Amino acid sequence: MNTKPIIATGRTAEIIEYDNEHVLKLFRPDLPEHLVEMEFNNSKAVYETGVHCPEPIEMREYGGRKGILYTRISGSTMLQTLFQNPSVLTEEARKFAAIHIDIHKRSVEKVPAQKERLEEQIKHAPLMTAQEKDQVAERLRKLRNGDQLCHGDFHPDNIIHGESTDWVIDWMTATRGNPAGDVARTYLMLKFGQVAEEMPQDVQAMVAQVRNRILEIYLEEYLNQSSVTMDDIRDWTLPLAAARLGEWIPKEEKKQLLEWIRSHL
Predict the structure, then answer these.
(1) Do 132 and 41 have their domain in common?
(2) What DSSP state is assigned to residue 64?
């Protein structure tokens, strides 16, 4: 049983205090061990590119659960900053795009290939028919490859504002590939992502409004500061949406994604 203080909780893991210089990311007991190993290896590869991310030290078991020991960083997430001070939304959304562009400027080898991972996820995606999966996979195969670093889960809660730098966390889904696919993934999360159902309706509405505004500014800034076009992003949204169906996301979000997928086949 975990007796150390919990710093943060996510869908797949808890961050617990380990010592003054380290935290332990402790994964859910039902998460396959190969995914923990994937995050550790990806994080090492990303750290070596110079991206500002916590350094992974070693894999470690604690309380019967698999974990990764990371160097400790401190600060508030971009999402927390937005809720604490909504007036900085435009500035934060532009920074969100700038950080993503900086990630995409880096080439990387020691992480999985983007299209290979997506094709495997689409193959095992729930709710879709075999014919629908084949259609999506065929579109994926026609898309341009790349060797740029892609985060795979880039959203405001995965950016931590430190005292002197911004940190990017959670690299389990990192790949080498086409940045347009990574932007498409962020687009889908901001467009379809669900908030907790227990939140009051007015709070849910406010979150949706903030999320839509972030998406609008982020896309405008990213397109203005990179060579990626909106058509490039649109081409990637279908396979990314299909792949997302197999993730631990709310049923309502899966329902909306499935409807969107079928309307775009």
Answers:
(1) no
(2) T
108 CB neighbour count, 10 Å cutoff:
20
pTM here is 0.95
Host domain of residue 54: 6-71
**Domain termination site, one of 44, 71, 98:** 71
For each of the chain's 265 residues, which pLDDT tens digit applies? 557 889 998 889 999 999 999 999 999 999 999 999 999 999 999 999 999 999 999 999 999 999 999 999 999 999 999 989 999 999 999 999 999 999 999 999 999 999 999 999 999 999 999 999 999 999 999 999 999 999 999 999 999 999 999 999 999 999 999 999 999 999 999 999 887 666 677 777 778 888 999 999 999 999 999 999 999 999 999 999 999 999 989 899 999 999 999 999 9
Tokens standing for 51? Answer: 């991206």
The span from the CA of 229 to the CA of 223, in Å, is 6
33: tokens are 């061990």
Contact 147, 109 (CB under 8 A): yes
Residues 11 and 83 in one domain: no
